[in-house]
Amino acid sequence: MKRRTFIKQTALAGTSAILLSKTSIAFSNISQSNTLTRPIAISTWDFKIPVNETAIQTLRDGGSVLDAVEKAINLVEADPSITSVGRGGYPDRDGHLTLDACLMDEKGNAGSVVFLENIMHPISVARAVMERTPHVVLAGDGALQFAVEQGFKKEDLLTENSKKAYRDWLQESKYIPPIGEKNHDTIGLLVMNKDGDIAGGCSTSGMAWKIHGRVGDSPLIGAGLYVDNEVGAATATGVGETVIKIAGSFLVVEFMRNGKSPQEACRLAIERLIHKNPKYKNDNGFLAGFIALNKAGEVGACSYGKGLQYSLYTDGKNEVIDADYSKK
Ligand code: GLY
Q: What is the pLDDT of residues 226-266, one digit of tens each?
């Protein structure tokens, strides 16, 4: 395993010093980027359900890249055993389950819902905002009213498990749970079809036990997700506050626009994230990460803190891969 510091990396890269931070952080081994066979689906974590496969099957059935994103994310939102997305998600500190989601298509259209309650598929409401309104973002009660008007069913999304977890949490009321293998956080998904068109989406119930009204990075275009069909796409997972402050997914796409591979772009964004959020540097419960896909069909992923996994579908098979990470 080869350790390189960011400083060495920048010396090798040479030309883009102005974009770089001053901290020196060592990273785990650096994956090589390769152009993958299309169609490609890359998603955050291993949700143990066929997320990428559903996306690819949707393309095979004649669906668009946006259909693929929506259908696959719907699967995660509907799964009551997933405690960080949709139905079964953990509530905020007042016991409300509030959902955030957004998506972007290959034409640069975007839709988003924030702080939405009682609708199982926020990603589909985000799509309805994009396709049926002149707006990009709807929030809270307005988003719920819109969803109901559009025919979405209003329902209680708390499960026995999430209610019990909340009752247990109330005993101690500790604010931030660690994010990792057991507390997966956001589903972020990027899909490229055979023609090379890209769409992406992300959906989450956000940080468990958050303050009522808190909105994370996931529904914010440019933070939790960004798609530019001419360049590539990125999506984020982990502590959303740190991602918002660097417009993380947009930053990854901009690094790619400037010639960085998806892997380098994710790593540089993590470097920026920790430079701008120094208080998290030595917090062992802290994790934030990005996955990215460029127009050439290369992918990358990197997190601050060990533990991010991503799922990659290419060449007819799906694989779960440990992301590179910065060493603390
Ligand atoms: N990344 C999800 C959130 O912070 O809400």
A: 999 999 999 999 999 999 999 999 999 999 999 999 999 99
Our mutation pick for probing the ligand 1 site, out of 205, 218, 277, counting the most ligand atoms within 8 A of Cβ, is: 218
Bridge partners of residue 311, in order along the sequence = 43, 320
pTM (predicted TM-score): 0.91
**Lookup: tokens for 299:** 């992918």
Q: Where are the domains of the chain?
A: 2-327
Pick from 235, 228, 223: which is nearest to 295 by CA? 228
User: Domain 2-327 has what CATH class?
Assistant: alpha beta
Q: From the CB of 203, is ligand 1 less than 6 Å away?
A: no
Q: What is the 90 CA–ligand 1 centroid distance (Å)?
A: 12
Quote the pLDDT of residue 286. Answer: 84
Which residues participate in catalysis according to the annotation?
186
Pick 33 or 122 by higher pLDDT. 122
The band of 3, judged by pLDDT with boundaries at 50, 70 and 90, is: very low
48 Cα–ligand 1 center, Å: 20
70 lines ligand 1 (CB under 6 A): no
Cα of 208 to ligand 1 centre, how many Å? 9
